[in-house]
Specification:
Chain lengths: 416, 292
């Protein structure tokens, strides 16, 4: 063990033992972020804060929630919502937060696609981000079951049923997931475990991984320009703060983040206190009843687009049933974003609107996702079913065409 | 400026999507229905413009009603325990103490004349169903006699307290024979087994209906259940607008008891957020002055 000199201050004492001076440099004051950014670059910090809010409110809810089919509904709607002091506040923050975090995830994700922030060395940032998206989806789905309302039950029923379409093992897989032949107490308790332990652990790990993945390729900037971070950092440290293309994470980058966060929180708390119906579906205030199917079953809004990709295929094509086609399309839709860095064959790292072909693709994709989301909620009858099919097909075509479109773009711009 | 443009694009995209999946989708799934009618003008067997004579009504009520109905407010106690009454009639007959207050005059008169058509339950108790409603029609009474009965019932209805206690009395009189409300400790006066047989299914517990159905839906539904849920076994009960308001308010007092607290705390938290954002803006400006 190294010999320790007597420390002259508390800071020094900690520095000797934990290397806090270096640590704060690496993590904060000399962690370099590009200066040319807009408020969309604050979404990551908003997500981190939202996750913290969900974690804290979740811990409080956990103190009174009872994962048992006979007690769950009342433990949420009576004990937490009406009996325990400010229990309602934690539930509202948790329920609205779970919905809003997906809005921010989508903005974060489409910002990445718009600015091409998944290319040229940033592939692992993208992949770890998509991993987080999947984990949050699983977290959202498992959490939605816990209040044990009608929509909890029937959404769980419909979504777990999807796995039954997998060839050979499907039937057994559904029983394995549910822990019973139907959605029952065993399903609730295992989803509870997933929601409060396994998935949050995985999320914490994935967040650390996501942050780590940013260290080497660095954060992208608004124009997609590549520059020498070392050189720019030296400029900044030498005092040319205005000339340098980088800013330190603390305090410059964070000061902007905190401001954007402040504006976001006004919006968020407005939803929490005054406009929460979109995140707390009225139907879920009816206790789960396996004998009474609700007139309309739909997932939470953030799953609607992929639900519609599944549902859009309602008729048999070439001997394959609509159900199987839907399942294949659904599998495709959920996996395809993951390989985005390899579908985009153009070397251009620029905002989508400055890319000759990609810009059309990008806005078409956004429009298609909006149509899918909208029709994922509407009853799939009459013309709605065909719009759903069209939008679902468009989604597949868009992603299959992406490598060709971007290849053509690469040729046009000549490798720039 | 550019940042505002980006923000405007995001707000537009999110706004359009929100409009589609919330207000629009809900309007498709739950189309608007005819406005609630608190005059019950579709039933017109009795001329309700006649002035009733409460004294004569008292005689008629004592001769015709109290064999089955209790009227606590006029010292006619319940004849038998709820379980026995339910076994005898299918459902416990209502105590008529509050009838004159909570039921609309026109509805009440026409109900006495012919209960099934007033309740809109012809599909359940019509001639082809083989079932008869436990209360007979008093269509042999003259309109004057019916109005006398109504006048008497109105004269004996006790005033109820303001606020939650009074709302509870109205709720129990209007809904409590079939519906429980667990979160208020209210149990339906008709035992579950009898209810199941009588109604075809157990009527739901109403603890959370203010949330699951919402005020807007309840406003139409209670006024006439058939409009929103065609074929339901729930009768149109004929509440006056005031009585129905009291019922809905009570459902909110029980099902959403923290509403007032939520709205007060909400304002403070939002105010805090605004101040926070303001200070954050000043800090950001100060820091970024050095780098821009």
């Amino acid at each position: 063990m190294a010999e320790f000199k007597k420390a002259n201050s508390m800071g020094e004492w900690f520095d000797q033992r934990l290397g806090v001076v270096n640590f704060s440099k690496v993590m904060m004051t000399e962690y370099w972020i590009p200066k040319e950014i807009n408020f969309l670059w604050a979404m990551g910090m908003i997500l981190a804060v939202m996750f913290k809010l969900l974690l804290i409110s979740g811990i409080f809810l956990l103190m009174y929630y009872k994962p048992d089919v006979n007690m769950a509904f009342d433990s949420v709607n009576y004990t937490i919502m009406q009996d325990v002091a400010y229990g309602w506040l934690f539930r509202h923050i948790h329920a609205v937060g779970a919905s809003v975090i997906f809005l921010i995830i989508y903005i974060h994700m489409f910002t990445g696609i718009y600015y091409g922030s998944y290319k040229k060395g940033r592939e692992m940032i993208w992949i770890s981000g998509m991993l987080l998206f999947m984990l949050f989806s699983a977290e959202g789905f498992s959490g939605y079951m816990l209040p044990w309302g009608q929509m909890s039950y029937w959404a769980a029923y419909v979504i777990t049923e999807i796995f039954g379409g997998i060839p050979v093992i499907g039937g057994d897989l559904v029983v394995w997931i549910r822990g019973n032949f139907y959605v029952a107490d065993a399903t609730l308790t295992r989803f509870f475990m997933l929601h409060v332990l396994l998935i949050p652990l995985a999320i914490l790990g994935a967040i650390a991984f996501h942050f780590y993945a940013l260290r080497f390729p660095h954060v992208n900037n608004e124009s997609g320009e590549f520059f020498d971070y070392e050189e720019e950092a030296e400029k900044f440290k030498a005092g040319d703060k205005k000339g340098a293309k980088v800013i330190p994470f603390w305090p410059v980058f964070l000061s902007k983040d905190v401001f954007v966060l402040g504006v976001f929180l006004i919006f968020f708390f407005y939803l929490v206190f005054f406009h929460y119906g979109f995140a707390m579906d009225p139907i879920n205030f009816d206790k789960a009843d396996g004998l009474k199917t609700p007139a309309h079953i739909y997932p939470e809004w953030y799953f609607l687009w992929s639900y519609e990709v599944l549902r859009g295929w309602f008729f048999e094509i070439a001997g394959v049933s609509g159900k199987d086609l839907g399942l294949m399309a659904f599998g495709f839709a959920n996996a395809i974003f993951l390989v985005m860095p390899w579908l985009d064959r153009s070397p251009m790292v620029k905002p989508a609107n400055q890319r000759p072909y990609f810009k059309y693709w990008f806005w078409l994709m956004i429009a298609d996702l909006m149509v899918l989301t909208e029709f994922g909620k509407l009853p799939p009858t009459g013309p709605n079913a065909w719009v759903g099919f069209g939008a679902s097909l468009t989604f597949l075509v868009l992603f299959i065409a992406l490598p060709f479109i971007t290849k053509a773009e690469a040729k046009k711009v000549g490798g720039k | 400026m550019k940042e505002f443009k980006i923000l405007a694009v995001i707000i537009a995209l999110v706004g359009i999507t929100y409009y589609g999946i919330e207000p629009y989708a809900h309007s498709v799934m739950h189309p608007e229905v005819a406005a609630a009618d608190f005059t019950f003008k579709d039933v017109k067997n009795v001329d309700t413009s006649l002035a009733g004579n409460a004294e004569n009504g008292k005689v008629l009520v004592e001769a015709n009603c109290i064999a089955c109905h209790a009227i606590e407010s006029a010292s006619h106690p319940q004849m038998m325990p709820n379980a026995d009454a339910a076994a005898a009639y299918g459902v416990t007959p209502p105590d008529l103490s509050h009838a004159g207050r909570i039921y609309d005059k026109n509805y009440l008169a026409n109900f006495i004349f012919d209960p099934v058509s007033a309740m809109h339950l012809q599909h359940k108790f019509g001639p082809d169903t083989g079932k008869t409603f436990p209360m007979p029609s008093y269509n042999w009474m003259t309109p004057q006699e019916i109005m006398d009965v109504v006048a008497y019932l109105q004269s004996i209805a006790p005033k109820v307290a303001e606020g939650k206690e009074g709302h509870k009395v109205t709720f129990e009189a209007a809904c409590g024979r079939c519906h429980s409300m667990k979160y208020a400790g209210i149990e339906a006066t008709t035992p579950t087994e009898n209810l199941k047989t009588y109604m075809g299914a157990t009527p739901p517990d109403l603890s959370q209906h203010i949330k699951s159905r919402g005020e807007h839906y309840l406003h139409s539904f209670i006024n006439d259940p058939q409009v929103l849920l065609h074929g339901t076994a729930m009768p149109r009960v004929g509440l006056t607008e005031e009585a129905q308001e009291e019922v809905i308010t009570y459902m909110e007092e029980i099902g959403d008891s923290k509403k007032a607290e939520r709205e007060t705390v909400g304002l403070w938290v939002m105010l805090y957020s605004v101040v926070f954002a303001l200070f954050a803006f000043l800090w950001k400006r100060k820091i970024w002055e050095e780098v821009h």
